[in-house]
Amino acid sequence: MITKEELIELIIKENPKIDRSNINIEIPKDRSLGDYALPCFTIAKQLSLNPNLIANDIKDHIDKTYFSKIEVKNAYINFFLKKEEITKKIIDEVLEKKDLYGTKKPNNKTVVIDYSAPNIAKPFGVGHLRSTVIGHALKNIYEKQGYKVIGINYLGDCGTQFGKLIYAYENWGDKEKVKENPIKELNKLYVRFHEEAKNDPLLNDEGRKIFKLLEEGNENYLELWKWFRDESIKEFMKTYDLLHINHFDEWSGESYYLEKAKDVLKELENKHLLTKSEGATIVSFDDMPPALVKRSDGATLYITRDIAALLDRKEKYHFDEILYVVGNEQTLHFNQLKEIINKMGYDYAKDIHHIAFGLVLSDGKKMSTRGGSAVSLHDVLEEAVSLAKQRVEEHATENIEETSRMVGVGAVIFNDLKNYRTSDIDFNLHDILKFEGETGPYLQYTYARIKSLLTHNIDTVINYNEVDINDYVWNIIFKISDFENIITRAKEGYDPSIVAKYLLELAGLFNKFYANEKIIDENINKTAFRLQISEIVSTILKEGLRLLGIETPNKM
Fold first, then answer.
1. Which of 397, 400, 420 is nearest to 408 (CA)?
2. Helix-strand-coil percent breakdown of the chain, rounded to 5?
3. Contact at 8 Å (CB) between 439 and 522?
4. What fold, for 380-547?
5. pLDDT, tens digit, for every residue of 34-81?
6. How far is it, in rounded angstroms, from Cα 478 to Cα 87?
7. Which residues, in sequence order, are CB contacts of 416 under 8 Å at separation 6+?
8. Which pLDDT band, with edges at 50, 70 and 90, does 466 fall under?
9. Segments making up each domain of the chain, as ranges
10. Domain over 115-366 is classified CATH 3.40.50.620
11. Is the pLDDT of residue 116 over 70?
12. How far does the chain reach from its first CA to its final CA, in angstroms?
């Protein structure tokens, strides 16, 4: 199979004067017009020649190894691929490689991905879903592309909010209630602090004082903080288990970099990058607001600890890229981080990438822990599983609990990843659990349908001279041949939705094939061929969903 990019290379090889940007390879909607088409008007304009002459010249000189025919029509070159040869090649390759199809060889490059990062003493909210599933999908995609990937869960376990929480616990907390339901009670206390601070703004100063003492090692506050942290991680693990995301290469938190942040401040000072502003310490920039790196009371800030973490990760992992899967609202923060690294004289600022994403909305409104309206992701996932079970029970008689978990959780993940990440998404469980339309359950059901077909095991050598490679078959083969390119595009754009949309298209093509072709036929040769088409589709669906972090039940 030849890709669009490879076709461009063939054209340029024989026509080096043509500007690559003027070669716009199209895939005709009407496939009877060809598998690829090249309009020659832009090329003709560049070379000041007649477009029909250009088209015929390219046709006459291009390497025809891959094509059954090449036609010129109205200054379009229409390329027809060798269907029988390519179909057999793709089928054989997928059947041989199975889930390794589309996998690139190791490239000796390392990427660090910082994702998920829930905040301790707060619910693992739906708002953290996006960082978790986008980061996990990117980790899988990068590994498929041959990278060594270090996944880091950088817990929000440091900052002024913990001073506020400790103040709230000491003044209004009940130890037994917290022991009974740590996250729920601690969140209540956090919300109450902000409600009380509306009437008494001086409480915010008290919170800052306590955090400063915590940062300096106050034993009582450290003991409370460790308790809050340990209980939070226990709760987080329940959610990760439901998501089937149970491995991070490193668990760390901001607290680990408190001491290292002081070294960062010294380095910034030695490099003459610090200035004072109203008692605080800042780093100034020419084209954006200054970064506050130390408060007037001497406490470090989020960006100071992020610099320390970045320097540590570079020393530890020698990464080629580092990705921060964090919401759109932190764009300024990461622009400042990159510029500070650049000002410090490190040459890897260009390798720092902020993988921004939009909000999860409920009825069009942002969810907020501070406002008390955060929705627990664990509760949402369990509700999704419960709703999925109602549908699964209509079709399945075995493994109902496990299948319901796969379908419910998969629906939530796919609903997120099918959208381009910077867009906001509205959360509606009933819509995302439908077995039809652009949903995870639709893909899983298509996969399960194929697995049911494959119980018909036809052991025969296919005679390709006796099978009909019609449009239904050819469209599937053509789509599967693009799988590796799709993964590459998803990696280059840091965009799992490219894979998600591809899987929807592939499932749609298979379901047209299924509706219009008699899979189990009296003719053994035709049956074996159609079952092989079905099998390679199931292989790509399963592997594609795995890349997105979604499991595939064999029966639904």
1. 400
2. 60, 10, 30
3. no
4. Isoleucyl-tRNA Synthetase; Domain 1 (1.10.730)
5. 999 999 999 999 999 999 999 999 999 999 999 999 999 999 999 999
6. 8
7. 129, 130, 133, 134, 360, 425
8. confident
9. 4-81, 115-366, 380-547
10. yes
11. yes
12. 34
What residue type is 145 in one-letter code?
Answer: Q
Tell me which residue of 160, 245, 155, 234 sits closest to 203, measured CA to CA.
160
Structurally, at CATH architecture level, domain 4-81 sits in 2-Layer Sandwich (3.30)
By residue count, the chain amounts to: 556
Residue whose tokens read 């041949």: 481
Phi, psi dihedral angles at 193 (to 5 degrees): -55, -45
Q: What SS3 string covers 508-550?
A: HHHHHHHHHCCCCCCCHHHHHHHHHHHHHHHHHHHHHHHHCCC
**Two tokens, residue 358:** 């939009």
| Conformation bin of residue 540: beta by default, left when phi > 0, alpha when psi is -120 to 50 | alpha
**Tokens found for residue 307:** 């610099």
Beta-sheet pairing, 275-277 with 250-253 = unpaired
pLDDT at 458: 80
> Which has the closest alpha carbon to 56: 68, 71, 39?
71
Q: Token pair 């020698």 is at which residue?
A: 318
State whether the Cα torsion 430-436-438-440 is positive or negative: positive
